[in-house]
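job 3f2a | input accepted
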Amino acid sequence: MKSRSYLLLICLFALIFGCQTSVLEKNLPAVINEAFKTKYPQAQKISWSSQDTDKFKVDFSFKNEKISSVFSSDGKWILTEKKIITSKLPSTVLNTIQNGFGDYNIQSIKQVESAYPGNYYSIKLKNGNKQITLNLSHDGVILNDADTKRDQN
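job 3f2a | predicted structure (153 res):
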């Protein structure tokens, strides 16, 4: 059941960060803008986009980091993600990668905070023409079924 929830979350990411349309701040529903400003009052370089009328993505800088966050049309925070480097990963996460996917190279890492299922790391791994996206908890537990994410591209 947990794997399906995480698979659903991955699909949500694809939908949210897929085809997007730029949105001017003045065209945002006020509730979304207020929720964002409450959560990130010191955000800078703010750029909004939307795939549909249900979810709004905002890219911004906060504490010298580039961050993306998603809010629902009723102003509820859904998730926030930022790219991080390998040295910022907890040793438990690195151990899981090294023990189970030692023949893969890390391509990118995102630290994700979400309302559901919680906080985790989304890590893209590559070995030749095989690519895997792993979602790992802070404890190094794999939250998605890695084998279903293997691509031959």
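job 3f2a | Residues 2-17 form the longest helix (16 residues).
job 3f2a | closed
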